[in-house]
Amino acid sequence: MRKSGAIKAAKKAGNVAADGVIKTKIDGNIAFILEINCQTDFVAKDAGFQAFADKVLDAAVAGKITDVEVLKAQFEEERVALVAKIGENINIRRVASLEGEVLGSYQHGARIGVLVAAKGADEELVKQLAMHVAASKPEFVKPEDVSADVVEKEYQVQLDIAMQSGKPKEIAEKMVEGRMKKFTGEVSLTGQPFVMEPSKSVGQLLKEHNADVTGFIRFEVGEGIEKVETDFAAEVAAMSRQS
């Protein structure tokens, strides 16, 4: 039986698993976020798949595990059995943790999960910030946190655009300086307009509450996974030829 399940799992291993669930859990001053993938939305809602995801998350929290390979090894036998039962490839994709004075989490359905760590904030504010991160997808906490390689790449793109407009290089460079300030604000949490009150930035909101965000993590199901578009008619024709 176990051998049969392993054979089925091996056959499914090459299938792209880009659907699935995001799970979050806060345990004292540390929070965890986990992504587990399957192939279809139908299986993502399956009770057995959900129970497996919950079990993996609980193990990560209990053991303070942030190495996904450790979780994969620990749950490989159960994963193989679930693949054999459900009939889809299943993958424990990633896990991360966040520590902080005040922690908050938000889940938009099962597809987007966010953790936020802050200091000087109450739980309600942190929850609102997590909702903002889910909606606005910031990449950094503050404009000054934007990495040098990201800044350089965007600078070159904007400089090329400015130069193509026929402006002298000196003027083009000054134009780009202004654009870069806008860019670093757009990709950072504190520089973005607060989704619940767009007239103020998240930075202004934090200042009003004498609070600060120390970190955040945002996971979205399947991000970065290249999905294979299936031609249903061709798939049926191929199956009929095999039968």
From TrEMBL:
PANTHER family: ELONGATION FACTOR TS, ELONGATION FACTOR TS, MITOCHONDRIAL. Associates with the EF-Tu.GDP complex and induces the exchange of GDP to GTP. It remains bound to the aminoacyl-tRNA.EF-Tu.GTP complex up to the GTP hydrolysis stage on the ribosome. Gene3D superfamilies: 1.10.286.20, Elongation factor Ts, dimerisation domain. This is Elongation factor Ts. GO terms for cellular component: cytoplasm. Keywords: Cytoplasm, Elongation factor, Protein biosynthesis. GO terms for molecular function: translation elongation factor activity. Belongs to the EF-Ts family. Residues 40-43 are annotated as: Involved in Mg(2+) ion dislocation from EF-Tu. HAMAP family: EF_Ts. Residues 31-223 form the Translation elongation factor EFTs/EF1B dimerisation domain. PROSITE patterns: EF_TS_2 (PS01127). It is found in: Cytoplasm. NCBIfam families: tsf (TIGR00116). It comes from the Bacteria. The lineage of its organism: Bacteria, Pseudomonadati, Pseudomonadota, Gammaproteobacteria, Enterobacterales. It comes from Salmonella enterica subsp. arizonae.
